[in-house]
Give the backbone structure.
Amino acid sequence: MAGRAHPRPSGGLENEVVACLAAADRPLTAAQVQAELGDDLAYTTVLTTLRRLYEKQALTRVPRGRAYAYQLVGNLSETQAGLTARQMQKLLDAGTDRARVLSQFIGTLDEDSERILRDLLARHPGPDQTSPASDAQEQRPQ
Amino acid sequence: MTRIAVVFGLIMIPIVIGIVGGLAAPRAARLLPPAAATVLLTTFAVTVSLATETGLSYSAYLSTVAVFPNAHPSDWSIPVLRTMLPVPSLVGLAVGALALVLLGRAGVHLIRVVMAACRTTAAVRAFPAVGELAVVDDDDAHAYAVPGRHRRVVVSTGMLRLLSGPQRRALLAHEQAHLRHHHHRYAQLTRLAAAASPPTAMVTRAVDHAIERWADAAAVRAVGDPSTVAQALGLAALARPAVPPHLLGAAHGHVVDRVQDLLEPPARRTWAGVLLAVATLVCWASTVAVVLYLHGIVEISEAATGG
């Protein structure tokens, strides 16, 4: 990848930052977010995005050193959200709205396809990892 | 008798093309760039079902003139029509019943889609979201896009933890591409077409597949590297427990095909697209021909009544 020649759709970076903080499960500083995103993003761009999200009250922040560490606003009604998620999953499993809900980023595999898939991925290691399928948990680039 | 043969032949053209096209659709989809495949296959499926329905219902209407004389214009000469198009009334009734059943299937499908859409929209509105992104606290890896007025990309924390930064960007770009390009419209149109014309049911799966590859291609543009998208796809798929093959049915090999397309892109063939477009045009031509031909017969019968 040479520089960041890949334009983002509007709101794309905000979504990435939110996704990054949701995955982290602990407050992250702008520098940590920048490292996590790993797309040669300017520090100020990340910081601006974090501030904008903070102003939208999507994030909370705590002082850490000379900077702030940011965290997603804890879902006040977490049980409510969990309920909705289960309800949604049920709708998906029932397959009634398959045409509208495009849920196939992931699919299900049988043992054969699983082996083929592991072979394929092993033959084409990504830019930021060497043995991708072997250990999914151990993934912290940089 | 030759007139019946002509009408029968013209009606059968879209049906036969629909069956052949349905069988060839999965191959055709992989020979074409995903966006082109999606649009061409959707147009094809909709055309086949419209052409089939038009041919069946118009011919049934004309050949049941003796059974329901009141349902037809009074200046049509029934005896002339009967001699011009001597289709047994029973056959006409059967064809009419078939046309009605297919139309009914489409109607039922439409009602069910609208009801399901209301339920999912209500469910997804309840998600706490930042912009269009809703993160669900769930250890299982899942991600999907819900279109509509309150469109959302829903991702579980389990999925996000599985992926690295660039892989997450690929995932988000994939789901956003679904929303931005209104992929659900193609998925819905082909399902409606399949309800009205069962032979095109195979096209539905090919279009589903093409839509996913379309979103994968958009993700590649967002991260600039196909292998990152492939890794993200693979990690997500491998995180789920493997399923015995007999439970899988249609989804078999879906992810593997997509990963393969990303890592080892197949050669694209323009002729596949041209062939699909020609097949679509032939369906339209046969429909226009059958309508004009039947209309000609009606005009002769009108002339016979001295109108």
About this structure: The mean pLDDT of chain A is 72. The helical segments of chain A are 12-24, 30-37, 43-55, 78-94, 111-123.
